[in-house]
Write a structure and sequence with these properties.
The chain is of the alpha/beta class. It is built from eleven helices and eleven strands.
Length: 364
């Protein structure tokens, strides 16, 4: 699917109260598919312009676009993203990197300059966000970008009401056990050198996107260290929730799939077919679902309408996605989540939910 992204950003004072706006159009420029706006506090025009671009690309990714035509009235951003101008200012380098990482997930992205008069939709959104930053208007919607308009909201046609709590679900980086494809549950291996690099890449990406209100992590070291990297980039603290811990694989901890199957052949087969079955001295997927449901409810209660980065493990993240999709237990065996991958689920106050992204790894 081809879309057009128009983005704008500005600052009243340069630097001063700043905000951005972005709109995603259908390829024929006839229909608005998504929009985003947000106040970003005290910043420069160029920072706000980049934040608008990043928000627009994120919305296009959420729509499943494969080809993106970016149109902006910022000559600097267009030329830098096109590779014709160097990025010299350190404040823009991280944003440029984040935008390039986002762009890599599309088959094709083009950038072109347009006059401000042709960028009126995004300009209006950016000015509304700047009004909010200056305390002159209603607060912008929370999230990586503001909540999209009714056409972009994937559940809007169902009548979902209120601002959703958006969960950014980040899997931890690589450990030695994941390299060897061994069951890694309650054991506490550290990140490998590559795992540290993966955590840093995710942190750069999330830091550039911004708009995250809290960071919550599993207590295990591999997840906490991954969360800490992103929290530092976002200027936030890490809150630990013990119920985000990985499945307890019991006697299978540290074994490969084949070794566990050879040790307990019938039990292993039953475990793969029935989420109520537990590994020896371990925890069933049904038990994991019960505690993850409690975490999800706590996060929504504590952060209504906000965006929360949740750093955890394969099974808890799959379980949140299953809850958002209202899917049966077999989906746990059909979802694939790479190390340090990002997925996004939204939960609305009236009980409706939506999955906007699964297994993004373009920033790695």
């Amino acid at each position: 699917m081809k879309v057009i992204v128009e983005a704008d950003g500005g600052s009243r004072g340069n630097p001063g109260p700043a905000g951005y706006g972005a709109v995603v159009w259908s390829g024929d420029h006839a229909t608005v598919l998504a929009e985003a706006k947000s106040a970003i506090g005290h910043a420069t025009n160029n920072v706000a312009e980049y934040r608008g671009l990043i928000a627009g690309l994120a919305e296009a990714a959420g729509l499943g676009a494969s080809e993106v035509d970016v149109a902006m009235d910022s000559k600097l951003v267009v030329e830098q993203m096109s590779g014709r101008w160097r990025v010299k200012h350190p404040d823009l380098a991280a944003l440029h990197h984040g935008a390039k990482s986002l762009a890599q997930q599309f088959d094709h992205v083009s950038y072109r300059w347009i006059p401000r008069a042709e960028n009126s939709y995004a300009d209006r959104l950016a000015n509304e966000a700047m009004d909010s930053a200056a305390g002159l208007g209603p607060a912008s919607d929370p999230g990586l970008a503001s909540n999209p308009g009714p056409l972009s909201n994937p559940v809007g046609w169902t009548g979902a009401k209120g601002a959703p709590t958006r969960l950014l679900l980040l899997r931890h980086g690589q450990t030695e056990l994941s390299v060897e494809r061994r069951y890694s549950g309650r054991g506490n291996p550290e990140l490998t050198e590559l795992g540290v690099q993966q955590a840093a890449a995710a942190a750069r990406y999330l830091g550039a996107r911004g708009g995250i209100d809290a960071v919550i992590s599993s207590p295990l070291q591999r997840a906490y260290d991954t969360a800490a990297a992103s929290a530092k980039a976002l200027g936030l603290d890490v809150t630990v929730d013990d119920e985000l811990i990985e499945t307890d694989f019991g006697a299978w901890e540290g074994l490969t799939f084949r070794e566990a199957a050879e040790r307990d052949p019938q039990l292993h087969r039953d475990w793969l077919r029935d989420t109520a079955v537990s590994p020896p001295d371990g925890e069933s997927f049904d038990a994991v679902a019960a505690r993850v449901s409690r975490v999800q409810q706590r996060i929504i209660a504590d952060h209504p309408g906000r965006t929360v980065l949740v750093v955890s493990h394969v099974t808890p993240i799959k379980t949140v996605l299953r809850m958002a999709l209202d899917a049966g237990p077999t989906i746990l065996y059909r979802l694939h989540l790479d190390l340090a991958s990002l997925s996004v689920a939204e939960f609305y106050p009236d009980g409706v939910a939506s999955v906007r992204l699964v297994n993004q790894t373009a920033y790695l």
